[in-house]
Specification:
Number of strands: 13
CATH architecture of the largest domain: 3-Layer(aba) Sandwich
Structural class: alpha/beta
Helix content: 25-40%
CATH topology of the largest domain: Aspartate Aminotransferase, domain 2
CATH class of the largest domain: Alpha Beta
Largest sheet: 6 strands, mixed
Distance between the termini: 52 Å
Radius of gyration: 21 Å
Strand content: 5-15%
Amino acid sequence: GTNSCGSAMFIALNIVGVQPGDTVLTNAFTFHAVPSVIEHARAVPVLVESNREWAMDAEDLDKKATETGANVLLMSYMRGHVPDMDAIMKVVEKHDMILIEDCAHAYATLWNGKLLGTFGEIGCFSTQSSKALSAGEGGIFITNDDEHAAKAVLYAGSYERLWMKHYDLDSDLMDQLQNQIPGYSMRMQEVTAAMLTPQIDRLAAIKKIHVDNWALLHSLIHDHPNIEIPLPLPQVDSFCDTMQFHLVGMSRDDADRFIDLMKEEGIPMQIFGARRNARDYRQWEYIKAHQDELKATVANIEFACDLSMQPHLNSDNIRVMGRVILDVLAYIHGQ
């Protein structure tokens, strides 16, 4: 465990050998923490286009990998949106890239029955307050590579064989690595771990709540002419703790008005491509020197609405949310 998902990703980049000046490919649509950890490693983030369903575009990944020669891909499943993993893995294998998965929004999410976080060498999860496992802040690092695991424990800040209290690791390997790895003081606090442990057994039940609520809200609003809800690929089994939809056929002013009115109704929402949103790559001025214009990503976030759906919500709450969304749209068009 680490003190944040960002720390887990930073440690992952160090483990796979990313050096200052190296190119690391990542999503154009993600939270700014993802390119930030690449900058933290003094590497160069190069952004890959996102598609209409807000997942990484495999064709642009192939193009960027060819152009840059990058050998590391830090791929984010932003808001739980999953790309065509068969196509992504073909590109990863074609270019002999190392895949690190940012699964902050992809707990208990599967592609063809395989859990996200297990496709690459390392998977990183978040336990920040809005995530499926929530402890205020924290991160989880997973791998099936013993040496990666040993290095992660040491990079996180375990010292003087204190790792023996928590991990069943190869003692010879740990003794070999102990003084070769800097400790970055990124360990998860024990109180954080104590809050998380009992939540793990509830994850399947929480997922069912989210899946049912998402399906209900989708049934209530998807037919509206101003709402486009891209569906995941059939191979995806999603966690469904948030819903995103495109506002179509609306002006910028009307879209912003929709967000303001929803907030007044007690249902806070945001548009990814507006109001200096931290998920809009155009706001990441610290990496602008490395980026071309990403027209597909801009088009796919410009009117993309984001709605959180916490597990305490029941079907009555969801019906109210659906009615309010439709009423607000009707009000805007009636003005």
